[in-house]
């Protein structure tokens, strides 16, 4: 094999959708964990790759590695600081080692929908959070939306007491640990790539996620059903290594950030629709989707909301107040 052929073979085996980059192009490796189809992040990442490779051809070349083929979310930020990957979009729940500010987004029933999340993120407080990890070497570039979380388990979940004694997978966030404990569950932090197997083998009984993740990774196939709780949020931070970003020529950086901004706006406005399609796809595939009565939902709120008190110091009462004012 020639060197070029080897590079192509390596790229293909690593799961990248693009052809190998040309000599002299700035290579941007973008590692993420979800599927690419019927998924807000997967679609946005593909669009970003397409536009960068078309509009910045000869200057910059993006390779997207979806489905945890390069790193899972627990490793990707370390890899970014090492310079092994330039772009990632982990959920806001996965930055605990770097900042506690994003805990706001994990607090149950903090935001009533993604429009409220969007409004908070666009505020001065939300924009300041993009810069909260600069001293740790990370720069937030944009928020990407996924959607509201739903609960699933290997038994029907209609009231919080149904979760009593069940083992739940959670993302690596102490807020989510506290939330599951508040309903009598036993939480276990676990990488996204391991969830399907853990549900299938009964290592855990349940999990919480968006429609697009529950569909994209087929969790519904190994659960009794999914209950539409809309109790929390999964949203993403598009993040990069600040030294890498600062090392780009100003015009290159500007063009790249402009494309990212446009992709963000286009795809964020479609995220709710993408999740609704994933929900319908679950139903079409025979998955059980359960609705709560107002009374049942009130019980979930009552059980989970006391968790806020444990984290008020981390997230700031002013931010809680701002989020609540947006919901009103
Ligand atoms: C999860 O770990 O459940 C999610 O953060 C995965 C993702 O990137 O949406």
Verbal overview:
This protein is α/β, with parallel strands linked by helices. The chain is 44% helix and 19% strand. It has helices at residues 3-13, 40-55, 76-81, 103-106, 114-122, 124-129, 174-182, 195-200, 211-216, 242-247, 250-268, 271-284, 294-304, 307-315, 317-327, and strands at residues 26-31, 60-65, 87-88, 138-153, 167-170, 186-189, 206-209, 225-241, 289-290. Strands 1, 2, 3, 4, 5, 6, 7, 8 and 9 form a nine-stranded mixed β-sheet that branches. Helix 7 (174-182) links the parallel strand 5 and strand 6 (186-189). The longest helix is centred in the C-terminal third of the chain and has 19 residues, at 250-268. Mean pLDDT is 94; it is low at 5-18. The structure holds (2S)-2-hydroxybutanedioic acid. (2S)-2-hydroxybutanedioic acid (LMR) is lined by residues 33-34, 91, 146, 171, 192, 209, 213, 234.
Structural key phrases:
binds (2S)-2-hydroxybutanedioic acid, single chain, 9 strands, alpha/beta, 44% helix, nine-stranded mixed β-sheet, 328 residues, 19% strand, globular
What's the total helix number? 15
Gross geometry: globular
Structural class: alpha/beta
- The helix/strand series, from N terminus to C terminus, equals HEHEHEHHHEEHEHEHEHHHEHHH
User: Approximately how much beta-strand content do the residues carry?
Assistant: 15-25%
Span between termini: 63 Å
The biggest beta sheet reads: 9 strands, mixed
Give the cofactors and ligands.
(2S)-2-hydroxybutanedioic acid
Question: Rg from C-alpha positions?
Answer: 20 Å
The residue fraction in helices comes out at 40-55%
Low-confidence stretches: 5-18
Strand tally, please?
A: 9
Mean pLDDT across every amino acid position: 94
């Amino acid at each position: 094999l020639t060197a070029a052929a080897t590079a192509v073979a390596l790229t293909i085996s690593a799961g990248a959708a693009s052809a190998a980059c040309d000599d002299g192009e700035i290579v941007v490796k973008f590692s993420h964990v979800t599927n690419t189809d019927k998924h807000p992040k997967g679609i946005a990442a593909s669009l970003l790759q397409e536009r960068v490779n078309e509009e910045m051809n000869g200057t910059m070349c993006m390779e997207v590695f979806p489905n945890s083929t390069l790193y899972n979310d627990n490793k990707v930020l370390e890899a970014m600081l090492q310079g092994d990957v330039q772009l990632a979009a982990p959920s806001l729940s996965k930055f605990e080692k770097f900042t506690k500010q994003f805990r706001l987004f994990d607090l149950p029933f903090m935001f009533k929908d993604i429009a409220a999340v969007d409004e908070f993120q666009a505020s001065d407080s939300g924009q300041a959070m993009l810069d909260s990890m600069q001293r740790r070497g990370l720069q937030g570039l944009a928020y990407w939306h996924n959607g509201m979380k739903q609960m699933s388990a290997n038994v029907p979940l209609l009231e919080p007491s149904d979760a009593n004694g069940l083992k739940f997978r959670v993302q690596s966030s102490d807020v989510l640990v506290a939330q599951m404990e508040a309903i009598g569950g036993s939480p276990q932090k676990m990488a996204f790539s391991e969830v399907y197997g853990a549900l299938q083998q009964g290592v855990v009984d349940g999990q919480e996620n968006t429609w697009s993740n529950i569909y994209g990774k087929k969790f519904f196939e190994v659960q009794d059903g999914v209950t539409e709780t809309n109790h929390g949020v999964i949203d993403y931070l598009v993040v990069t290594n600040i030294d890498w970003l600062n090392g780009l020529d100003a015009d290159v950086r500007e063009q790249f950030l402009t494309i990212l901004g446009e992709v963000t706006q286009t795809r964020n406005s479609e995220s709710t629709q993408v999740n609704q399609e994933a929900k319908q796809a679950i139903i079409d595939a025979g998955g059980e989707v359960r609705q709560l009565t107002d009374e049942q939902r009130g019980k979930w709120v009552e059980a989970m909301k006391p968790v806020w008190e444990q984290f008020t110091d981390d997230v700031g009462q002013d931010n809680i107040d701002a989020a609540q004012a947006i919901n009103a």
